């Protein structure tokens, strides 16, 4: 009876270790995760600049805000407590770069910044990357071009805001959402990004999806180097959303610490499991 118990227990441990190792070492499907090597991941950004990972916004109080940039992932719910940490970071001189999503909209509302944008996409038949849904826009402050995806024209950005990112004069708003230009759709240059001052800090808000994902990174690298980090030495990347998923958290740690060490650890545990099973047969 004891022998059978040991065999069953050892088999369960081994199976669990194998399953865990497979899950953790499988490429991440989580959007905006540094462990995701796909189009919507941030692995290239992480591997290129090695930014500091933020898994808890409370850590923002321990950095030198005036020298720090936070790339805020916008696509998640955010609590009032988390908003207070971010607003305090900005107020003390921090720079936040963010794009369109629930977290960024909540942050702007928390700071009493009125932002309004069109619900329709901005398309461009001329100034584009691969297709009209990927317009090439212009960051006027440093005369840089940026590639956006799923961009929306901004109509209001409050008295503390200044438009610094414009689409080309060939862009238009897809009013009927058919993906093509129609005669009633005005062709013009539209605001798609604003710089907002808050106390001693700044928010750069882009009305699009995240422009630093893997599929756009090569085209926006200069924007990071010259437009974001040129006068700030510390780059932070928000991973709070991915970090709330236990499996994704393990993947992030795998990327952060040492893939070799953690892989060896998993393999070692598997070998131990095999040895236990073999011993009890």
Question: What letter string, H or E per element, gives the SSE order?
Answer: HHEEHEHEEEEEEEEEHEHHH
Q: Provide the gyration radius in Å.
A: 23 Å
CATH fold assignment of the largest domain = Rossmann fold
**How many helix segments?**
8
Structural class: alpha/beta
**Would you identify the CATH architecture of the largest domain?**
3-Layer(aba) Sandwich
Mean pLDDT: 88
CATH C-level class of the largest domain is Alpha Beta
Low-pLDDT stretches? none
- Integer count of domains: 2
Strand % is 15-25%
> What is the number of strand segments?
13
How is the biggest beta sheet arranged? Answer: 9 strands, mixed
List the helices and strands and how they pair.
Layout: H1 2-25, H2 43-49, E1 52-54, E2 68-72, H3 80-91, E3 95-99, H4 102-110, E4 116-117, E5 122-124, E6 136-139, E7 144-147, E8 154-156, E9 161-166, E10 171-173, E11 191-198, E12 201-206, H5 214-228, E13 234-238, H6 240-243, H7 246-256, H8 259-279
Parallel strand pairs: 1-13, 2-3, 2-13, 3-12
Antiparallel strand pairs: 4-8, 5-10, 6-7, 6-9, 9-11, 11-12
Helix pairs in contact: 1-8
């Amino acid at each position: 009876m004891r022998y059978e118990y040991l065999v069953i227990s050892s088999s369960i441990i081994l199976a669990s270790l194998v399953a865990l190792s497979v899950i953790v070492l499988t490429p991440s499907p989580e959007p905006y995760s540094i462990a995701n090597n796909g189009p919507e991941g941030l692995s290239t950004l992480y591997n290129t600049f090695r930014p500091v990972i933020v898994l808890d916004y409370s850590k923002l109080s321990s950095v030198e805000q005036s020298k720090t940039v936070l790339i805020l992932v916008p696509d998640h719910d955010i609590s009032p407590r988390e908003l207070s940490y971010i607003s305090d970071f900005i107020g003390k001189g921090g720079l936040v770069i963010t794009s369109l999503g629930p977290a960024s909209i909540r942050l702007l509302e928390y700071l009493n910044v009125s932002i309004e944008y069109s619900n329709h996409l901005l398309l461009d038949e001329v100034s584009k990357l691969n297709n009209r849904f990927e317009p090439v826009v212009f960051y006027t402050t440093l005369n840089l071009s940026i590639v956006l995806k799923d961009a929306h024209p901004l109509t209001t950005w409050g008295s503390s805001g200044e438009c610094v990112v414009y689409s080309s004069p060939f862009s238009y708003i897809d009013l009927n959402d058919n993906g093509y230009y129609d005669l009633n759709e005005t062709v013009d240059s539209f605001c798609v990004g604003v710089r907002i001052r808050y106390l001693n800090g700044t928010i750069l808000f882009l009305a699009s999806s995240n422009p630093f994902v893997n599929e756009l990174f090569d085209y926006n690298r200069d924007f990071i180097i010259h437009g974001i980090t040129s006068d700030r030495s510390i780059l932070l990347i928000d991973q709070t959303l991915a970090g709330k998923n236990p499996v994704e958290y393990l993947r992030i740690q795998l990327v952060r610490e040492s893939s070799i060490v953690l892989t060896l650890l998993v393999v070692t545990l598997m070998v131990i499991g095999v040895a236990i099973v073999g011993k009890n047969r």
